[in-house]
Amino acid sequence: MPRRKDLDHTLIQNCVMEALLQLLKDRDYADISVSDIAKQAGLHRATFYRHFSSKDEVLRCCLSKMLQMAEGTKEVPQTDFAAFIFPVFQAFYENREQLLVLNQAGLSGQLLQVLKEYFAFDDAAKSCSNVSQYRLAYRIGGIYSCLLLWFSHDMRETPEEMTKIAASL
């Protein structure tokens, strides 16, 4: 059973992430300060810093949270790439409004690092051959590029269509 402190941490993180997304609808990311985010979330600035080190961390946390909803294997398979990639497209599609706001704000670059963390690239790179490391890096880069193009199309294609496209490449 989660402790109250843990629930409070999760609740505060969610409030801060939502505050950043709300602010991004009307302002440039560069013009948003930590104080602005804290105020929008109804928190004191010190509370913000107890839960996040920067607004960049809030952004990465938003993207990571979206990916955490992807239910599927995180290990890149040798064969069934479609079953592997579909949950990623589905998770992002379910958060398309927020992703389009982030993309429009020019913040999609943070997604590459989040994908590397999601697929445990650094851990996998230590434990596999050079060829496997390059294969994983290539696939993560390809997923990232497909996502960016999908965002630029306002995510009109369904996750099923995106899976079919990505798996055919």
Q: Could you write a compact summary of the structure shown?
A:
The chain is an all-alpha fold.
In helices, the fraction of residues equals over 70%
The total of helices stands at 10
What's the β-strand tally?
0
Strand content: under 5%
Give the end-to-end Cα distance, rounded to a whole number of Å: 44 Å
The pLDDT mean sits at 85
Radius of gyration: 17 Å
Class by alpha and beta content = mainly alpha
Our count of domains comes out at 2
* Low-pLDDT residue intervals, each spanning 5 or more residues: 1-5
Strand/helix succession: HHHHHHHHHH
Q: Judging from the principal axes of the Cα atoms, what is the shape?
A: globular
Largest sheet: none
What does this structure look like?
This protein has ten helices and no strands. It is mainly α. The chain folds into two domains: 49 residues, Homeodomain-like (Arc Repressor Mutant, subunit A), CATH 1.10.10; 106 residues. The longest helix has 23 residues.
